[in-house]
Amino acid sequence: MNLEIEKKPIIRMFNVSKQYGTKLALKDITLEIEPGEFIFVSGASGAGKSTLLKVLYLAEKATRGQIIIGGMNLDRISSFKLPFLRRKFGMIFQDFKLIPTRTVFENVALVLEAAGEKPSIIKKRVMKVLESTGMETKTRALPPTLSGGEQQRVAVARAVVGEPEIILADEPTGSLDDKSAKLVLDALMGYHKKGATVLMASHNIFLLETMVRGRNIALEQGELVKTATML
């Protein structure tokens, strides 16, 4: 086993900026994230939290700077290698982004179907992640019949079913009550303990401080103003 390779950061950002017209959403972000870290990306609305996650996932391309994920330089990645990069990620959105006409099972299974997995493997893995998020009794339910907290737990299951190395969560508890938010955070922590690197954008720093240990990366008007360990 090569321990030197394991110690390398899974995410590296060098002077990364993102500009929309005349507005700089991110300003010269330089950051390293180790494998297995739980990172809180905090800041007020408009601070750049969502933009940071988008440039990592390549939903948006950085205007300047370099991002290296798992040894792949995002500025030079080919269209052929892009799907392999995307498989490293599991995405969780504040507005769930579930398909309303597909059942809970089908929403989660889509990730594995797109990867070409066999039906027998899909059924086993989907049921496993639904059990881990407490949604195993809702496999045939349609998303509109579920509460916000239940829909977000389905979104967590969808994000982790492909066993990604990195989970990006954009305000996943923003629209939830405290009880539902705790259930979602518990599910995320379960996968973090299994080795996943988690980046979670949230303005609710009090909730995070009382529940989870990790590193807080604070943004203000697109700039990195603080990075500190939360105990």
UniProtKB/TrEMBL annotation:
InterPro entries linked: AAA+_ATPase (IPR003593), ABC_transporter-like_ATP-bd (IPR003439), ABC_transporter-like_CS (IPR017871), ABC_transpr_LolD-like (IPR015854), P-loop_NTPase (IPR027417)
GO cellular component term, pick one: plasma membrane
Name of this protein: Cell division ATP-binding protein FtsE
PANTHER family, per database record: CELL DIVISION ATP-BINDING PROTEIN FTSE (PTHR24220:SF470), IMPORT ATP-BINDING PROTEIN (PTHR24220)
The keyword Ribosomal protein is assigned to this record: no
UniProt keyword annotations, A-Z: ATP-binding, Cell cycle, Cell division, Nucleotide-binding
Organism: Desulfonema ishimotonii
Pfam families: ABC_tran
